[in-house]
């Protein structure tokens, strides 16, 4: 598998910045990891500080016990979460941008490294026997 594809997959499915570490682009990798972790920390802290976990837990209990119908409009009205604060919206978009940037940038760095190393010579037994016959 090419380095570019491997790095992009690591960044896409593991964590933003891991693909850079695989490619030995440590400064960019750690910068992306730090940025994404900070944004994720902010979002998780907001969820707990606004008491969203308790609200959702209480609503889930009411739905499962049959007190409240399992209707999305009713549940949304009873939770009354209101709009997300602007900081949460910015952090969400920034986290998505970090993720996409990590995938794209690691792919481009991997492509550059793939071009620099070039294709590996074919050393299969068939190729070696053909080379020895022509010499």
What structural class do helix, strand and pairing data support?
A: mainly alpha
Counted beta strands: 0
Distance between the termini: 32 Å
- Radius of gyration (Å): 25 Å
Q: Specify the helix fraction band.
A: over 70%
The shape is elongated
Please work out how many helical segments DSSP would assign.
7
Q: Give the biggest sheet.
A: none
**Which sequence of SSEs, written as H and E, runs from N to C?**
HHHHHHH
User: What average pLDDT do the residues reach?
Assistant: 87
Strand content: under 5%
* Uncertain regions spanning at least 5 consecutive residues: none
Which features does this protein show?
about 140 residues, 7 helices, about 75% helix
Describe what you observe in this structure.
- The protein is mainly alpha-helical.
- The chain is 77% helix and 0% strand.
- The chain contains seven helices and no strands.
- α1 runs antiparallel to α6.
- The protein is elongated and about 85 Å long.
Chain-wise SSE layout:
Layout: H1 3-13, H2 18-22, H3 26-49, H4 52-65, H5 72-79, H6 86-117, H7 125-134
Helix pairs in contact: 1-6, 3-6
Task: Write a concise synopsis of the structure shown.
The protein has helices spanning 3-13, 18-22, 26-49, 52-65, 72-79, 86-117, 125-134. The protein is mostly helical and 135 residues long.
